[in-house]
């Protein structure tokens, strides 16, 4: 299996190379050269398997010869051993034909753990074999950072630096990043918003001298291995609800478009997905793009679902690449316009392609709060604000016989203020994290400045 860049100019890489490098050298994102398909019989045969067994079958063709079957099985086993639910990604029914896919039973209580725990084990295995050392730098709106730190803390061949927007993550998110004591992890509070964090990260990757000197590796949702890990739960959920014999719909609370793009890959592999619904909060660039055809940034308004407070949705580039018939030059042109003019118009053909697969909707702050309250009243389940955005948008979709699955992307205890404001009750942290508020914090403030960041990383990393 080979991987090509969405901008058509970077070297073609193997799975292992694409995983270790993250962002392509032409500024693009890696995607598989061809998407392998799973025939209906193979999909049906996933029924009754453990999550790990299903994960092996779904992901195996993408990994090529990077790992043997036995190695890959062991990696998957270690990745999900720390989850708090035997099913890993269980379903809960919240209405007639409407289900929640609970993706918050991992160690940092958000769906990011599915990808990050796997990628931690994949990196460890690959680096041990090669004796290489890498510097992982990630940008986070909150959940990626804690998941990355949890996955890489204490690993011997890796230094991890996480940039988060100062004052714009929840206290639980911040503490999950600042309390691990291992000296290979570094939480950096950047003076700016999440888009600034993401922009500085991209700058670092495009500064080849620095990139090569520190062995820069990316684990943001632009990393193909993360998208791949997320493909699995679309299969397990759909099969539980009758796929491949019955089509299923998914609504996905979306920011960087990584999670929902994994759903698109599942569909391309042959899973009968009737619709993938993009759910945004008030930062609704993706909803506006899909409905109006213009992808235009207009600044971020902080919301109660902060992990979706974003204007530049990195993984959307992967969808554009498909929508433009895999024309890297066309994608590069649009990304150039985005950088120089703050936006671009999606061609009519590309827009029609996207609307075949994707629908979209947005939830305001008030609607999000109302949905947390109403879901609790109707079902007794407490949902996080990101999940609530999804539940609201899912409820707005046209009726269909296909079951609707809304991805529950975080545990409510990660966003206690928003939940308490809606329901009156503060959701407790799970036992494993009960002392989070008592642990000492370690964090370095940093200016929104590339040179300052690079200097700090160079000084702190181990050699
Ligand atoms: C990251 C995150 C999202 C958005 O996921 P993308 O893959 O960036 O679209 C939604 N909800 C929560 C809780 C998250 O942590």
TrEMBL record:
Every Threonine synthase N-terminal domain range: 2-80
E.C. numbers: 4.2.3.1
Molecular function GO labels: pyridoxal phosphate binding; threonine synthase activity
Needed co-factor(s): pyridoxal 5'-phosphate
GO BP annotations, alphabetical order: threonine biosynthetic process
Keyword field contains Ribonucleoprotein: no
Keyword Amino-acid biosynthesis: yes
Catalysis performed (reactions): O-phospho-L-homoserine + H2O = L-threonine + phosphate
UniProt keyword terms in alphabetical order: Amino-acid biosynthesis, Lyase, Pyridoxal phosphate, Threonine biosynthesis
Signal peptide: none
Residue numbers carrying N6-(pyridoxal phosphate)lysine: 112
Biological pathway: Amino-acid biosynthesis; L-threonine biosynthesis; L-threonine from L-aspartate: step 5/5
Any Pfam family: THR4_C
Domain Tryptophan synthase beta chain-like PALP: 97-332
Record-stated family: Belongs to the threonine synthase family.
Protein known as: Threonine synthase
Species of the source: Rhodovulum kholense
